[in-house]
Amino acid sequence: MTKTESTKSRILDAAEQLFAERGFAETSLRTITTRAKVNLASVNYHFGSKKSLIQAVFDRFLQDFTKELSLELMTLEQLQPVQLEAEKLLNALIKPLLSLNSRRDNAISIFMRLLGRAYAETQGHLRRYVTDKYGHVLVRFTHLFQKGYPKLTIDQIFWRLHYMLGSMIFTLGGSDALRQISQADFNRDLGVEDVIKEMVPFLAAGMKA
Amino acid sequence: MTKTESTKSRILDAAEQLFAERGFAETSLRTITTRAKVNLASVNYHFGSKKSLIQAVFDRFLQDFTKELSLELMTLEQLQPVQLEAEKLLNALIKPLLSLNSRRDNAISIFMRLLGRAYAETQGHLRRYVTDKYGHVLVRFTHLFQKGYPKLTIDQIFWRLHYMLGSMIFTLGGSDALRQISQADFNRDLGVEDVIKEMVPFLAAGMKA
DNA sequence: GTATGTTTCAAACAGTTGTTTGGAATTGAT
DNA sequence: ATCAATTCCAAACAACTGTTTGAAACATAC
After folding, report:
1. Closest of A162, A122, A150 to residue A24, by C-alpha
2. Closest alpha carbon to A89 in A162, A169, A144, A23
């Protein structure tokens, strides 16, 4: 049992890293199993198929994330509308994100990049899987925004939430590469946490616009 | 010569559409040549390799886009700092984008999705190709922002520009799917042009924050 | 220790991929 | 009409893909 767990999680570790780096189609099972130091057939034995492995990678991330996010939302849902400032709402999203990074190195960047790739899969099966299984927290988030900013129409909120998601996925997912450029150009290095901090006023201002 | 051009451009048409839909690795040359109704070998004959075909698809888009954008930037570069409001700068980016759509259906969405995919290619060769060949317009854009908003530090501008890019690529690239959701949820349909118009106040507020 | 169920492993499977090849068809110039 | 160059095309290539198989190794319970 303990040997099995180590095989499964070694596969998941290697897979999530490689998927984030290269994408799903560009990562072969042989590359994954080689890096994980397990036999090729063990992916199909433990996960059934490559597609299921991809979903398992997402599940491990999203379970951690949505659990923490859900807690944050619960406390917010007991506040008065006036207390629901955009900054506070953004922090409810950012706190669970930051705590991902404390578990594994680079987890934020990997997670965001995976989300971006899931979103780009226009064939749709993965995006549908994610939204079906974890979309309800996004709905709760939308409701909170509606409550805090009743002057905004519901589709204004819908779109602004997606503008926000785009900023986060794009910059945090690519933050490694962007930070390299930034460092080369301005000789200044920001950690992911700093990039997030820089992002809050930008997003909050846009939300309130 | 005219037959050749029609083959080359038929390949480009089919390729850019399929690449945007499914991604580069997920699109085979056989799928492309079948849709383009040309022989399989003609891709390698006319473009050399699949990799070069991808670059050719980007070149066709980016030449059109950067030419128009460059014109917009030239007129802006002759203005006084006080006149360089964020909204005006954003329009310099949006106008060339909208004019893409007048040439081919769905061009904005396709273009943005391609940019997103190029950006996600972390192996890097495509992103480097794009930034090397067309990055100078982005630099000019940065300079304009610096001029209009001298109180912002240079890396604040750098990052905010990327927040903005993320919003645009994410929402416009996925606008088809998102608009479907939006329509299903609120029974209201926005065109791409409307989504862009909605985006301007959001982004402008963030830039000025 | 034997029997039972679980996990690993090397090997092979059928299918798809990008690319190459050599000859046929087409084109344009003289 | 003749020649040369360009373009097209069917066929084949080797390399790689995800998955399956059947036996070996291992663990667990009696």
Report:
1. A122
2. A144
- B177–A113 CB contact, under 8 Å: no
Question: Taking a contact as any Cβ pair under 8 Å apart, which residues of chain B between 58 and 97 contact chain A?
Answer: none
Residue B149's nearest CA partner among B96, B105, B84 is: B84
Is the overall model pTM greater than 0.85, yes or no? yes
pLDDT at position A1 is 43
- pLDDT value of residue B1: 44
Phi, psi of A28 (to 5 degrees): -90, 155
What residues of chain B, 163 to 202, have a C-beta less than 8 Å from chain A? 163-171, 173-174, 177-178, 182, 185-186, 188, 190, 195, 198-199, 201-202
Going B122 to B124 to B125 to B130, the CA torsion angle's sign is positive
Q: Is the CB of B7 under 7 A from strand D?
A: yes
A113 and B CB contact within 8 Å: yes
Work out the minimum CA distance from A45 to partner chain B, whole angstroms.
Answer: 25
DSSP A79: S
Query: Does the C-beta of B2 come within 7 A of strand D?
Result: no
For the segment A118-146, what is each residue's pLDDT rounded down to a tens digit?
888 766 678 788 888 888 998 999 999 99
Mean pLDDT over A167-179 rounds to: 81
A4 CB closer than 7 A to any strand C atom:
yes
Q: How far is CA A76 from CA A73, A81, A83, A140, B76, in A?
A: 5, 10, 9, 10, 44
A77 neighbors A35 (Cβ within 8 angstroms): no
Please report the number of interchain residue pairs, chain A to chain B, with beta-carbon separation below 8 angstroms. Answer: 139
SS percent in chain B: helix, strand, coil, step 5: 80, 0, 20
Assess whether pLDDT exceeds 90 at residue B190.
no
Neighbours of B171 (CB within 10 A): 26
Q: What are phi and psi of B85, to 5 degrees?
A: -75, 155
Q: Is the CB of A41 under 7 A from strand C?
A: yes
Which of B116, B198, B208 shows the shortest C-beta gap to A159? B198
Residue with tokens 């990049």: A113
Q: What DSSP letter does each residue of B98-157 carry, written as one string?
A: HHHHHHSTTHHHHHHHHHHHHHH-TT-HHHHHHHHHHHHHHHHHHHHHHHH-TTS-HHHH
